[in-house]
Amino acid sequence: MLTPEAWTAEEEERTNAVLKGRRAKFYGPRPGVTTIRLIYSDMDLTQFFEFPWWDRFKPAVLPILQGVFEQYGLNPDRHVIRAQLNRVEPGGEIRPHVDQGIWATNAHRVHVPVVANADCSIFVRRHGAGKGRPHLPWRRLLLQEGFAYELNNRWQHRVVNEGSTDRVHLLVDWTDTGDRRREVLAPGQVCHEDGLLQGLGCRDWSQEEYLRALRRKMAGRARRRQAHGN
């Protein structure tokens, strides 16, 4: 299923839903990295989205998830909040970062190597806590095919592919609470990424429309806080 065209922007725009603005943001700090989005959520875990390619890859992905989730005694179709296939090309890298937001602090991150590469490593380290305390040293992890790994993505992490072949992982985020209702997106549907992440739904906002909608949301939240405080 992972044909060369599956990783292209043209195929994504034609048959999957698209996060507008994602490519410029994503490929800045992550050169040589491509993503196939399957399931996604907003930052606050209030809205959940099923991309058209979930149906395309579900016959291959769901048996993998079922094997993983048997260890937890959970149903993956009810507990998964995000799922994507992530490719790091030869020479590609994901620069040091920490995943943030309610979705990151409330979810578990699992990596399932689909195409492993002995020369592609993920490095993790815990942040130093408090003023003047340095980071701890990086720890190198080699993840192998045939295994699933739960990693703490609230620790700083980075990926470097020093090999001559691709590295492909299935990345899954899941929560202990289930029964997440997902909005099913249509092929070719365009979402403003920041709008989707801020809980404004999947709409093809212009930047000006997005900022106005975000201001309205923040003003409404402030009014509710004030009313609750009174």
UniProtKB/TrEMBL annotation:
Organism: Prorocentrum cordatum
Domain Aspartyl/asparaginy/proline hydroxylase: 62-174
Coiled-coil boundaries: none
Protein name from the UniProt record: Aspartyl/asparaginy/proline hydroxylase domain-containing protein
Domain of life (superkingdom): Eukaryota
Entry similarity comment: Belongs to the aspartyl/asparaginyl beta-hydroxylase family.
